[in-house]
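Same chain as my last thread, 261 residues:
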Amino acid sequence: MSTLPTAISAALVPLPAPNLEEGVEPDIDYDALVTEDHKPVDRIFIEKLSRLLTRPLYASWPGPGSGRTFLVLVDVGWFYQRQTPAVSPDCLLSLDVTAPEDLHVKQGHSYYQWNMGKQPDVIIEAVSDRTGGEETFKKNLYARLGVSYYAVFDPDHFLSEDTLRTYELSGGVYRLGEHGPWPTLGLGLRLWEGTFEGAQSVWLRWCDANGAIIPTGEERTTTLAEQARQADERSRRAQERIRELEAELRLLKGPPSPEPR
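reply #2:
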């Protein structure tokens, strides 16, 4: 969806190793960093998709393991090294990190790799035209930055006949792979046809380690309510059947014998 800054979309040059020494606070002028571009959101479908890629994880996914955290963000700048413009993936997922404590100061506006200590584990790009570089510049950059899994969601088939293509990093390059679930993450991606926020379409969704779609909070509540309704209906039918059997038993026994005088 988003395009790469000119400085990045040019020929990619080798990246110097970032200074991430433990305990060393990088000398960063956060006020000079551009963390918001103030561009309008994309079309309604993409705007809805952004919520479908974040809300289910926070509402229904327990995380990658006991005591482990995660962060999933949409359209947020990822500053992967100092003095380089940020990239803004449509969605990024990073395990074992947490959001900054104060989201209102500049240090809390973006995904600063020198603060997070690692690159994201998954990046998703949603294709909305043929100019975004999802299969060229972005794929090359994310591979070079060490993102383990990269997904290209192409619902209108601008780039190929595949609605979803997922890549796994191997030997420093991306190779087409399965959509997951990926054992190292306990997550994967699935195409799901259904209605979300009143819109019927084929959506991209997360799945858990067993391959099941991770529900939104509303879906989980609806499912629990439906399960309760079905349980109540089963109980009602069981009670009716018990009454029917009791009535049949009384008929078989016939009228009670008169008591002797």
